[in-house]
Amino acid sequence: MRIPPVPRTFWSLCLAVVAVAAPLHAGESTAPQFQSDSRVCFIGDSITAGGVYSTYLKIFYATRYPDREIAFFNAGKSGGSAGDAVNRLAWDILVHRPTAATVSFGMNDMSRLHLGISGTPEALEQAIQERMKSVETNYNTLLDALTKANVTLTLIGPSPYDDTLQVETKIERSNVAMARWTARIAEIAKKRGAGFVDMGAALNPVNQRLQAVDPAASIVGKDRVHPGPAGHLVMAMAILKAQNVAPEVSRIQVDAKTGKPGPLIHCTVEAVRTSAQGVEFLCRENALPFVLPQESGTQAFWGIAEKAAAQIQLAGGPELIPFQRELNRETLHVTGLESGRYQVRIDEQWIGEYGAEELAEGVNLSENPKTPQYTQALALAKSLEAVRGLEGSFFRLVAHVRGSFLEPAKVDIQDDAAVEHCLREAIAKLPPDNYGRAMAERYLKTVPGQTAGKLEELEKLLLQIREQRVLKPHRFSVTRKSEG
User: What pTM does this model have?
Assistant: First the structure.
């Protein structure tokens, strides 16, 4: 459907800034793929620490490239900045011996920059330029250290700050500042020969289309900062497209008259048997479809409050975020069938009924929850989601407390008594609604004495994921539906 134009009043909060703003497209996104035996660190702030877009990347690589052995490490920190990452470089990043890293900072580094505080657009521009100089010093210090450690870099521009969202949340940042910093990151990446991904170029157009339908909708979220699941999927998609990954899971094709397969993509077809009723064959695919870990479908997928499905449909439906069409095609093509309706089964499991014309054109199986491939991919995605949950509830909690309290106080994290004393002192000084205080309290309740058990739990999950990646051949049958 046609997307309605953005109303002029929609931009009332930022029209003055737009007049001096740089284009949101900072440069072409291009990045190296994660190869087998890579050790990949995701370095960033709370948007990275949450582990959502990185988990989508893990799911994609586990399903699209199941033969690649890749170790992934979350090195994001809530409230983090480039300078903070420099401080935790040795014990939270380089300790993983990374060979590749994505680096995503800007939301906190470029905070407190917006028209409301700075006054005029010209004053905002000057404030942005001054801030970027100080941020760039820390940013380059971090990149220098990673380069010295022979880490292949992908520099990621910050996701948008949604200062156009029509809600009562206070505006504390400017998306112009994010665009400016993204443009500078593109220059740094080019100079260093590093990968670069422009998150603003990926997310801003989606947000504009959403808000043209509903000014109170956002791909980012009501706090204007943290993308929901749909936003994280767009982020993962931007990285994957920059990496020029294989867009197709597989292309399975066979002629029902001749029994000849092909052309094929990422699969083999053998043991073809044709009959007057249809065709059967054995197929070995080299990949699995990408499946999100949420089982509840569209609502969980979009994650934009209760109006999610309606907003997405009004703003363009699946074409708003065309992940399936662009990066998740697992197509079954059966040509040479007589006109009529056909039952498709995989391993004797009924997966759907299609017309001869549909099958000739190609049916995308990646979204079909009845296929054994989908079932296997869903189990794999759930295991990777369990890893994310474990990282977030325990390991990133430990890292946050260490970086925020223990390292500044020079407290050994192995000294339980000293750790408890340090945290209780900090808790006593902090207000009840302080985020750091909440993290310290949570640490004292959940971490002491649990590390060995959590490590064992993580190892079991990683072993399970390795087993779930093993591909299996499947028997396809396409049989004409009997009339009557």
Answer: 0.91
